[in-house]
Amino acid sequence: MQLLRPTQAQAQRAKIAVAQVDHCYSNKVVALKDVNLNVHSGEFVCLLGPSGCGKSTLLYALAGQLVPTGGTVSIDDQRIRGPGPERLLMFQEAALFPWMTVLGNLKFALAARGVPRAARTPRALEFIRRVHLSGFEDTLPHQLSGGMKMRVSLARTLAADPAVLLMDEPFAALDAQTRIHMQELLQSIWMRTRKTVVFVTHDVHEALMLGTRVVLMAPRPGRIVKDLEVHLPMPRSLEDRKLNEMARYLRVLMRQVDEPSQASEPMDPPLGEAVGLHH
Ligand SMILES: Nc1ncnc2c1ncn2[C@@H]1O[C@H](COP(=O)(O)OP(=O)(O)OP(=O)(O)O)[C@@H](O)[C@H]1O
C-alpha cells in the first residue's frame, strides 16, 4: 500500500485545495508564487495582506475566473476550470439591477439558479428578513443606502445557497459604522449556516472579527507567509483584549512583509488559546 504524504492526505480532505499555485500576469508580474492552501468545509478563511500581495488573484483562481499559470486549484477533489454555481463571488459593488425592486433582484437571482417559480417569493422574503430588510421589499436600489444595498447583495448571494462564498473586500467602500454592522450581520449568518467562506481584506481587525483562520500574504512575489487559526469565541468584540493582542501582532507582521527593510523588531505571537499556527 502506498502511503500518502501528509500534505496529500490533507488536500484530499479539504473542501478547497490550492496546490503549488503560481500566477504570472502577461506583464510578467508574479502575482502568486508557490501558494498552498487547504480550506475545510465550514471554515471562514480571511486572506489578509497589503495591497498587491495577490489576494484577489488567489480569490479569482478559486472563483474560476482566472486560470493560474502553474499548480492546481480544486474543490471537492475536482479541478476548478471555470466559474461554477457552487462558488459565488461578492465584490465591493452591490451590483443590483437598478430597475428591479429588492424583492425583484432576489427573485431574478433565484430564477437564474433554477429555483421553481412558486418557491422564489417565500425564499427571497426569508433572506430579506435575515439581512433585516423586511419592509423594503418593494424599494428600488437608488432609494437604499450603501449599507442596505450591500445587505441586499448579501441576501441575494445567500439565497442562492452556494457551497462556497468568495468575498473580495465586500465592505471596503462602507463607512466605519456600517462596516461593523455588516461584519456583525455576516458573522451571525455564518454562525447559523457554517458556510465555507474565503474573505479578502487588508483590514487586520476585520480579519480577526470574522475569520476562523487568518492567512497572511506578502507581495513581490505574492505568497503566504503565515496561517493562523483564530480560537476566539463568537460573536467577537472589537474591545476583546486577545483580539487586540493578535491585531497588534498581525500589524507588525504586515509592516514587515510590506516594507522588509523598515520593519521593527519581530514580536512573539500571542500564543495560547486565542491563536494556533496552521503550519
Ligand atoms: N490583470 C492584471 N494584469 C497585470 N497585473 C495584474 C493584474 N491584476 C493584478 N495584477 C498585479 O498582480 C499583483 C497582485 O494583484 P492583486 O490584485 O491580486 O493583489 P491584492 O492583494 O488583491 O491587492 P489589492 O489589495 O490592492 O486589491 C499586483 O502587483 C498587481 O498589480
From TrEMBL:
Q: Which SUPFAM superfamilies match?
A: P-loop containing nucleoside triphosphate hydrolases
Region named Disordered = 259-279
Question: What domain of life?
Answer: Bacteria
Keywords of the record, alphabetical order, are: ATP-binding, Nucleotide-binding, Transport
Q: Name one GO molecular function term.
A: ATP binding
Domain ABC transporter stretches: 16-244
A Pfam family that the UniProt record links to this protein: ABC_tran
Q: Which Gene3D superfamilies match?
A: P-loop containing nucleotide triphosphate hydrolases
PANTHER family from the UniProt entry: ALIPHATIC SULFONATES IMPORT ATP-BINDING PROTEIN SSUB (PTHR42788:SF13), TAURINE IMPORT ATP-BINDING PROTEIN-RELATED (PTHR42788)
The name under which this protein is listed is ABC transporter ATP-binding protein
Q: Which organism is it from?
A: Stigmatella ashevillensis
